[in-house]
Amino acid sequence: MISLRNLFSIQAEPLAGLVNLNKGCDMAPNAEGLDALDARLLLLLSDEPRLGVLECSRRLGVARGTVQARMDRLVQRGVLLGFPPELDLAAMGYGLTAFAVLEIAQGHRGLVADQLGAIDEVCEVHATTGQGDLFVRMVARSNADLQRVIDEIVGVPGVRRTSTSIALSTPVAPRVRPLLERLAAEGDRPEP
């Protein structure tokens, strides 16, 4: 059986052979280091992750070596984390998504996060400010299964209190496309 944790942690290995990517390129990167070509490449890969470097270069109108160097740099810098398939958890039998805010005993955040990472149904854990210390996204097969997952989380040493909410729907799914589109468009505008 495939672990849910492993499905969400597919990482690309850093690629070797990086070159000076600004040499001969008139697209200046923004403050975060992405320029319009980077954004257009990421949009293309978001739409069609199975495209090869040659096809990407053809569609972007740049040399194959430029695309390869850009991809290598994006992987090396941690912008492009890999090419995992987009999965429908409901179709896999995990139709219930819930979020929990955890209050953690002083000095236990790292230990609790490690233990949460060992629970297959825990998809994400974020350290937060505000009411709680950790924000957890989890999935379950049913309400009874969710209770089992919550009991497992509550049983982690250092967890003081939890507050769990069940997601009824996802009006806006996780996305980065609008940000990439803005970066791509900013590269097309003349400098003021």
From TrEMBL:
**Which PROSITE patterns has this protein been placed in?**
HTH_ASNC_2
The residue ranges of the HTH asnC-type domain are 34-95
State the Pfam families in the record. AsnC_trans_reg (PF01037), HTH_AsnC-type (PF13404)
Name of the protein described by the UniProt record: Transcriptional regulator, AsnC family
GO molecular function terms listed in the Swiss-Prot or TrEMBL record:
sequence-specific DNA binding
Cross-referenced InterPro entries, in alphabetical order?
Answer: AsnC-type_HTH_dom, Dimeric_a/b-barrel, Tscrpt_reg_AsnC-like, Tscrpt_reg_AsnC/Lrp_C, WH-like_DNA-bd_sf, WH_DNA-bd_sf
PANTHER family from the xrefs? Answer: LEUCINE-RESPONSIVE REGULATORY PROTEIN (PTHR30154), TRANSCRIPTIONAL REGULATOR AZLB (PTHR30154:SF34)
Coiled coil ranges (UniProt) are: none
Annotated GO CC locations: cytosol
Per UniProt, which keywords does this protein have?
A: DNA-binding, Transcription, Transcription regulation
One GO BP: response to amino acid
* Species per Swiss-Prot/TrEMBL record: Saccharopolyspora shandongensis
Q: So which domain of life are we looking at? A: Bacteria
